[in-house]
Amino acid sequence: MYDYHVHSTRSADGMSLPEEHIARAQALGLAGLCLTEHWESQPESPAWRPDFAQFAPTHSLAALGVELGTPQADPTAARAALASAPFDFVLGSVHYEPNQPDYYYRSDVSSFEDARTLLRGYVEAHFGLLEFGDFDSVAHLGYPLRYIHTPGVTMLSVRDELEPLLRALASAGKAIECNTSGIGRAWGAMASLELLTLWRECGGELVTLGSDAHNASRLGCALRAGAELLRTADFERYAVFSNRRPMLMNLST
Hints:
Layout: E1 2-6, H1 18-28, E2 32-40, E3 62-69, H2 75-83, E4 89-93, H3 112-132, E5 137-138, H4 159-171, E6 175-179, H5 193-201, E7 206-210, H6 223-232, E8 237-242, E9 245-250
Parallel strand pairs: 1-2, 2-3, 3-4, 4-5, 5-6, 6-7
Antiparallel strand pairs: 8-9
């Protein structure tokens, strides 16, 4: 299988060298991986805005990618980053709304209505991401649910706002990610099975799979379980990207 969401020490929070991820991929028998190093619109620091021009692919197994965080907040800088290297794959992500703290710091949200308000803002930020446009797949839809633990709240708690977003993403030919980092943990897959099913109902055709590994020990984590979620949601294949173009792979590959 292919793991298309991986962070090395080229990312501010990565813990393993690219070479360590590649060695782990070979040991696991993975068909390939994509090093999707972080670029963030905030904070504006070299640690979160690396020089991608120096990040040539280091091995035939490793595609060159980037995870753009809320690029609509600084679109000029984001487009300059994209122009700096020949990327195979661009993940678009929302860890925070523009000029707001990361959802990591929002564990204070407890009531059902406050959680829905937060998720509405999260969905709205994805419309901004879509307006920016230059990305291939939306990373970890449902990210705030890692940190807010309000009983009964899911992404479908804001279905009225979510469904138009999914339809717009599908119409634009975008993918969404099944991020497997939470499988076996409290927050589960991002996107969840119910969200993947809604994506299919809204016309979504492309899904990428990624472990979001920041350490080589987590590389490939739960990819097979993620593939089973896709099957349950009536997908037959998943997407990998080369030169920004999708290639569809069998879920057993």
